[in-house]
Amino acid sequence: MPENVAPSAEPQAPQTVTRAHLIDWLRRLHATITEHRGYLTELDSAIGDGDHGANMQRGLDAVAEQLDNAPATIDELLKQVGMTLVTSVGGASGPLFGTFFLRAGVTAGAETEIDATTLAAALRAGLDGVSARGKASANDKTMLDAMIPAVEAFERAASDQAAAQAPTPAQAPTADQAAAAAAAAAAAAAGRDATAPMLARKGRASYLGERSIGHIDPGAASTALLFESLAEALAN
After folding, report:
1. What is the residue-level pLDDT of the chain in tens, covering all 236 positions?
2. Which long-range contacts (CB under 8 A, 24 or more apart) does 158-163 make?
3. N or C: which end of the chain has fewer CB within 10 A?
4. What does the alpha-carbon distance between residue 151 and residue 185 come to, in Å, rounded to a whole number?
5. How many CB atoms lie within 10 A of CB 62?
């Protein structure tokens, strides 16, 4: 290496999540739902109405159409996504995923970028909204079985990273959002897979009784894609 030439720095993971990151998240979610539509349909055909893939595709198509003219602040962006899903997705998925984004938007606030603590709080608010609206909890074989561990993993990662830093009086601690989102995506995938041996206690799948055992919940599968897309957006 020539003298006096410093080596190039490694790309730094984002320490805040911007509106642009979230728009990228939504574009990636649209793409992966499109890619996995058949898979989601197959899962739902086993224990539901067989329309989860089509419903999610329709909702994310509508979301994607609005992204070129998305609102200027994170709260309005996420609330717009939530209302679009509520009004365009059939079945239970629209109200549940819509509630997730609506509640997350309210908590994120009228900002153009947010830190790890705020993003964790927004994800928690979305989770609490889904739980309240669906009247479900862990181990009911629903989307919450992927969402609960994902949000908890994000919270732990963000908290651990912030605590490991020693902030100066003029600077609050920050966390590696990409690492926290990657932990959330891994937890969501594990939660999705864990629904297979469960007995469904909520939704249409609960009507099948023991016949629901042995099948992955389609809502948990699409929730895993939601967090996978977030991790990809923050890693890039």
Report:
1. 444 444 444 445 457 899 999 999 999 999 999 999 999 999 999 999 999 999 999 999 999 999 999 999 999 999 999 999 999 987 889 999 999 999 999 999 999 999 988 999 999 999 999 999 999 999 999 999 999 999 999 999 988 765 655 454 333 334 589 999 999 999 999 999 999 999 999 888 888 888 889 999 999 999 999 999 999 999 98
2. 158/116, 158/117, 158/119, 158/120, 159/120, 161/116, 162/116, 162/117
3. N
4. 9
5. 16
Residue 109 has, within 13 A of its CA and on its CB side, a CA count of 10
Structure tokens of 33?
């739902």
Secondary structure (H, E, C), the chain: CCCCCCCCCCCCCCCCEEHHHHHHHHHHHHHHHHHCHHHHHHHHHHHCCCCHHHHHHHHHHHHHHHHHHCCCCHHHHHHHHHHHHHHHCCCCHHHHHHHHHHHHHHHHCCCCEECHHHHHHHHHHHHHHHHHHHCCCCCCCCCHHHHHHHHHHHHHHHHHHHHHCCCCCCCCCCCCHHHHHHHHHHHHHHHHHHCCCCCCCCCHHHHHHHHHCCCCCHHHHHHHHHHHHHHHHHHC
